[in-house]
Amino acid sequence: MDTSVKNLIVEKIKSSKIGQVDFDNLPFGDVFTDHMMVCDYKNGSWGTPKIIPYQPLTLDPSARVFHYGQAVFEGMKAYKDDKGQAWLFRPDENFRRINKSCVRLAIPEFPEEYFFDSLKTLLRLDVEWIKPGEGNTLYVRPFVIATQPGVIAAPSEEYKFMIICSPAKSYYGGEVRVKIAEKFSRAADGGFGFAKAAGNYAGQFYPTKLAKEEGFQQIVWTDSSTHEYIEEAGTMNVFVRIGDKLLTCPTSDRILDGVTRKSVIALARDQGIEVEIRPIKVAELLDATKNNTLKEMFGSGTAAVINPIQGFGYKGDKYELPKVENSYASRFKKQLTDIQYNRSEDKYGWRYKI
Ligand code: COI
User: Fold this and answer.
1) How many whole angstroms separate alpha carbon 101 and alpha carbon 65?
2) With a 6 A CB cut-off, is 301 part of the ligand 1 pocket?
3) Atom of ligand 1 lying closest to residue 234 CA
4) Does the keyword Transmembrane helix apply (predicted)?
5) Which of 136, 170, 246, 261 would suit a FRET pair with 340, their CA atoms being 20 to 30 Å apart?
6) What is the mean pLDDT of residues 18-44?
7) pTM, whole model, 2 decimals?
8) Range with the lowest mean pLDDT among 3-12, 176-185, 190-199, 313-322?
9) Residue 171: what pLDDT?
10) The pLDDT of residue 4
């Protein structure tokens, strides 16, 4: 296997468990491939990345990640085209973002060639787990955890950078209705909402559980100071179509700079759709609902791809969105997946050969 990481260590499994996997019935994120990547940080530097059989970790119970949540992650997907070639979608963006998250969580940045060489080696080893055909993907989860023992509340001096992979179909099954946040917040100015930090997700679980009890699948967060402006949903950035215009809120230190989000903006602008990136008031959504100009809402994300939002709840009222022909959501989903599965020309250079 070609790789430019001189000492990349590869220890292969003795026999694959792939035969035991029912690829037609895969709950998101439950099944993992045969191998994983692990790279340890100690004494001020990252050691040699290793590809080893997928296995549990042994960590000291006082490891910092358990106590202070010093952990960040990424989400990427690999796809297989009809000729059997595997691809990633814009992994350079994920690499850039995980290091941005690392910096904010006081974690040492990870070297670029370690990331790409070990990623390629891992995916080539487990390439059989990437199934061809629309909707089949391999969800790739790079993450970093603070492993140094000791409960002092200070940055760890030891870390593990790991990559695990899970064959996946869609993240949401069926219709998605969202609750617009009135009281809880996901992130605040000066915080780390822009980072893919583990704690940003844990903090959403309780409000999302309450929203689920009311029949919603996700929360669309609002700004923490006034709750008047929509921000992002739990696992997705949010787009709104009013008339023929596409709106999304700007990224900030509260909002994740989504790779799918920026791809949708580029696709939309390229086909002449007016895209406004500006704060969006909840009141504007309500007005657009009343005067029938609110045509669509959808979420974008690696796991979710493009997910239409059928309705939303706000202050006890529920609003349904119209069913539109040739929706922007279905159009962008097709254009994105055509690029991802190598069915269309990639004029943006977003596909990355594995
Ligand atoms: C992703 O889209 O990769 C995400 O991070 C969502 C994840 C929390 C399932």
Assistant:
1) 15
2) yes
3) 8
4) no
5) 246
6) 96
7) 0.96
8) 3-12
9) 84
10) 57
Whole-number Å distance, alpha carbon 326 to ligand 1 midpoint, is: 27
Ligand 1 atom with minimal separation from the 73 CA: 5
C-alpha distances in angstroms, 254 versus 169, 196, 220, 251, 325? 29, 11, 13, 7, 34
- Give pLDDT tens digits for 240-288: 999 999 999 999 999 999 999 999 999 999 999 999 999 999 999 999 9
| Pocket flag, ligand 1, residue 94 (CB < 6 Å) | no
| C-alpha of residue 305 to centroid of ligand 1, in Å | 10
Name which residue sits closest to atom 7 of ligand 1, judged by CA.
235
pLDDT band at 5 (very low <50, low <70, confident <90, very high): low
Nearest-atom number in ligand 1 for the CA of 236 is: 2
Would the pLDDT of 51 be above 70?
yes
Which residue has the CA at smallest separation from atom 9 of ligand 1? 303
Backbone angles phi, psi at 87, to 5 degrees: -140, 155
Spell out the alpha helix ranges (H) of the chain. Answer: 64-68, 91-104, 112-125, 198-213, 259-270, 282-290, 328-340
Q: What stretches of 40-90 show up as alpha helix (H) in DSSP? A: 64-68
**What's residue 332's pLDDT?**
97
The 8 Å CB, 24+ separation contacts for 113-117 are 113/4, 113/5, 114/5, 114/39, 114/46, 114/49, 114/161, 115/142, 116/91, 117/3, 117/4, 117/5, 117/8, 117/49
Tokens of 257: 């700079």
Q: What secondary structure letter does DSSP report for 304?
A: T
pLDDT at residue number 105: 98
Kindly give the distance from the C-alpha atom of residue 317 to the centroid of ligand 1, in angstroms, as a whole number: 28
Q: Which domains does the chain have, with CATH numbers?
A: 9-168 (3.30.470.10), 177-340 (3.20.10.10)
8 Å CB contact between 87 and 78: yes
Which residue type sits at 251? T
